[in-house]
């Protein structure tokens, strides 16, 4: 029977994505996040309680216990992550353990054979006019209601623009050092008590160099499988690296002058020999389609408009890059494009399209 320990309002929001300007200590930033995004956090808690039960038959109290197994690794990595989570819980008037579970939600739920999405791409000069990093974020349609934008100014001078879900302190975005990260979920049964994926993403965005970012998540530091596409334009060098990660193994590809792209399965022969993953056919379809779209521009200079066109592509519907509701699937089985993002790392800009990029509900522009 599903746990009833959480009982939050699940009404549709009437506004667009909230933009939270956060500064000060980690705890202060968290508390403000909790206060300003209380509605989105409560929706996330309610939504993930239902999702954990539906996908894994896990009640909320069990999910909390699973999340608590990561505390030591989080503390060893960066105690400020825990302080920020504590601040969110205080600001939103919920338990610390509840917010911790949101930040470990991939480790709790992403270990089954379900439908997933997300298509990411990096284009470096001279193929791109600028250093670009972009992706669609595909997830349960209902979870779109929890989206927030965080504009973070850390005490050490690092500034971060990020799109995330209420209560989750790491996801997709870029920083003022011209460094950005995209995420592709990969389902695998392998999991440890190391750093949860979303906190690994935050540690990447806390980094000043690509080398520092790589080190934060390589060599078994991440608790479950994922793909992280990281890129940086730091004036002297423009480079992108794709990191296929698992708790025991990782593999990388990089480019300084061309492109990388990824969907929701491991491409590494090494990792595929070592690990058993659950991959849906749509991941291969989207990967092949992105390759075709990029190669069609092989002799041209790729622009932001070109990349928006790629992210808006509907070839192979319902397995397209830009994903719409599949009425043959339930909300728990289906994934739609909840937002798309294009980061211009050269000019320190980030363009966010809420909803499907082919016809966004709203567009947002962030810059440092």
Verbal overview:
It comes from Cerasibacillus terrae. This is Peptidase C45 hydrolase domain-containing protein. The chain has 368 residues and is an alpha+beta fold. The protein has one domain: Penicillin V Acylase, Chain A, CATH 3.60.60. 32% of the residues lie in helices and 26% in strands. It has 12 helices and 16 strands. A hairpin with a 3-residue loop joins strand 6 and strand 7. The protein is globular. The N terminus is likely disordered.
Short précis:
The protein contains twelve helices and 16 strands. It is an alpha+beta fold. Helix 4 (71-77) packs across helix 5 (79-92), helix 5 crosses helix 6 (96-103) and helix 8 runs antiparallel to helix 9.
Can you tag this structure with a few keywords?
368 residues, alpha+beta, Penicillin V Acylase, Chain A, eight-stranded mixed sheet, six-stranded antiparallel sheet, 16 strands, 32% helix, 26% strand, globular
Give the beta-strand count: 16
Helix and strand pattern: EHHHHHHHEEEEEEEHHEEEEHEHHEEE
Summing up helix and strand content along with how strands pair, one would put the structural category as: alpha+beta
Shape: globular
Q: Taking strands numbered 1, 2, ... along the chain, how are they ordered across the largest sheet?
A: 1-4-5-6-7-9-10-11
Helical segment tally? 12
Unreliable runs: 1-5, 7-14
Largest sheet: 8 strands, mixed
For the termini, the CA-CA separation is 48 Å
How much beta, percentage-wise? 25-35%
Helix content: 25-40%
What is the annotated CATH architecture?
4-Layer Sandwich
Domain Peptidase C45 hydrolase: 130-357
Organism: Cerasibacillus terrae
Protein name: Peptidase C45 hydrolase domain-containing protein
Pfam family, one: AAT
